[in-house]
Amino acid sequence: MNHIAKHLCLLSLAACLTACEDEGLDVLDIDVPEGYALSAGISTIFLDSPVAYDTQADWIDSEPAMAMRFRDGDGLYDDARTTGEGLGPVYAGYSCGSCHRNAGRTKPELWNAGGIHGEGGSGSYGFSSMLVYISRKNGAFFQGYGRVLHDQAIYGVQPEGKLNVKWHYEQGAFPDGEPYELCYPEYTITEWYADSVAPEDLFCTVRIPLRHVGMGPMMAIDRHEIEQLAAKSNYPEYGISGRANYITEKGKLQLGLSGNKAQHADLTVELGFSSDMGVTNSRYPEEICEGQLQMQEGSMMGLSYDQLDISAEDMEDVDLYMQGLGVPARRNVNDPTVQRGEQMFYQAKCHLCHVTTLHTQPRGSTLLMGTQLTWLGSQTIHPYSDFLLHDMGSEIMGVGLNDNYVSGLARGNEWRTTPLWGIGLQQKVNGHTYFLHDGRARNFIEAILWHGGEGEASKNLFKRMPKADRDALVRFLESL
Predict the structure, then answer these.
(1) pLDDT attached to residue 35
(2) N or C terminus of the chain: which is more exposed, having fewer CB within 10 Å?
(3) At 133, phi and psi to the nearest 5?
(4) What is the model's pTM?
(5) Cβ atoms of 186 and 170 closer than 8 Å
(6) How many distinct structural domains can be found in the chain?
(7) Kind and range of the H or E element at 342?
């Protein structure tokens, strides 16, 4: 069955489920397709360990030179950069791996009660495992600052500012009486390196790291299939209408796939080295603190800003490393509770946005400098995402997921559907279950309950389930 036919089957399934619910019939006899344990075709690996995100796919060994480049990229990703290797003068993390531990999500400093500002915020260990985006309320940047507040700096240089987070807690209950709690952040910034920014003129939004799971298959996705989903993924009965993000990068208008708002067409290796670590490169040759007093202070320390800190070849090796990582296979697929939870996933209509099956284009993916990864071509993959934008910003308890930050075509209330493959191993890989873009959800249930806007219908279907079915759905997510 081709992917268009499968999508039409999902449409028929949704209509059938609606009819069954209207008639009060049992909807548990859903024909869930098989084969989803093989999460990413040739990139699937069978690991259930702390390195499940950080292990190469078998196809990497097809060519010795490719395997060597993968290992070089792994080292560049994980090794801590120093002042002499281009770090800073201001930065957010000292390596890719500092924020993406084991290619996952390093535990966010936002929740460190012992942080330097009390409840959480900027860390004091050379990284904060988060990005702090700032802008004026009219969308303009502040003079002397860029889009990211760099809260770390090399010795002798002052960070641009420090983030403080205060958490607010609200109580709620499911219809069956089981209580739950949701929390949301209130951000303030102190210790500005220059003039303080008035809080009433400041928009601040925070991102904790994304899992680097399935980056290769994602970059190889058939773009036409995503565009077809955008054209067809309108379910007015559930208020769902996804749309693609398009951005102009490297002088070319492209479909966005990566990032919280699908605001990038590639894996942002060059941007990450520049914006996150202050490492200049051929695409971003200027220091991120260009024009700040920090440049003068760095010069006084003997730093030179006349050379690039990393080569394009090295950055392509990092790109290869990220795209060559394996995707963990599903686990416990024969567990009756997991199987029931999978049916609850469909019953709650989660699959309408977290699309279970996609396909990669025949030629695979292309790395930064043109290297073709044909191994990733013509694969059937199960990312549990349509990679489209959806409005998630309806207010919940007076607040919502609208962060007022525009990315490409994405408005503040729109977010890319998060791919769920590998999500059940985050606790094992990174030691925490903080979810959503800013880590406000402390577990799967809270993440579901934060779904507003186009996710409202699924959230309400979940809330009305008996506790055993809600727990089963969580068990299913843990199997991914």
Answers:
(1) 62
(2) N
(3) -90, 135
(4) 0.89
(5) no
(6) 1
(7) helix 336-347
